[in-house]
Design brief:
This protein has three helices and four strands; from the N terminus they run H-H-E-E-H-E-E. Helix 1 crosses helix 2.
């Protein structure tokens, strides 16, 4: 036995109900499609930014390695520059000495720095310095030899009085430079 719950409805009412059901199915289908597209877009954006984050982290690690490997050189360079500036302030009244010290500073490679400097009454500049390795020291000597060949260079003779290799592979040295015409 069948019970017809729509017995009293007309075909007009029945078609209205069927139309509402059709619209409901259509709205539900499109809602699911739009939601699925939204999830795909959000998922794609998430994966894109996650990929970019990985790339940036890799670049950050490589920059941190470069920074940490160059940190000692930067500190040594800054220390050397500060030493030269302090010596320059002390010698500011004696401009010829300051200019000559600046000539030495100009030929220092980045990984070589001065520790101290002294001008004596005989016109000799004696200074000690540190180099990060033998290659750095050789670069400094090459720069010094090339400068000695220039006519405008203030020094005429170089004497190495000390060269010591440290446990960490760096070199400590002491040189004396004769100022042309006795200073």
């Amino acid at each position: 036995m069948k019970i017809n719950l729509l017995a009293g409805t007309t075909s007009k009412g029945l078609s209205k109900i069927m139309g509402i059901k059709k619209v409901n199915r259509l709205v539900l289908t499109w809602s699911v499609v739009v939601f699925a597209c939204f999830l795909l877009v959000v998922g794609g954006i998430f994966f894109y930014f996650n990929f970019k984050l990985g790339v940036v982290r890799g670049e950050l690690k490589s920059l941190e390695r470069v920074y940490s490997s160059r940190a000692r050189e930067v500190v040594a360079y800054v220390r050397s520059k500060q030493s030269i500036e302090e010596i320059g302030r002390i010698l500011s009244g004696r401009t010829t000495y300051r200019q000559r010290l600046e000539e030495v500073y100009e030929i220092l490679p980045a990984n070589v720095y001065l520790v101290d400097a002294d001008f004596d009454s005989r016109g000799v500049l004696s200074f000690s310095g540190k180099a990060s390795g033998v290659k750095a020291y050789e670069d400094f000597l090459d720069n010094l030899n090339a400068s000695m060949k220039r006519k405008d260079f203030s020094f005429s003779q170089v004497v190495q009085t000390e060269l010591t290799r440290q446990r960490n592979g760096s070199y400590q040295f002491r040189l004396s430079l004769q100022i042309k015409n006795g200073g």
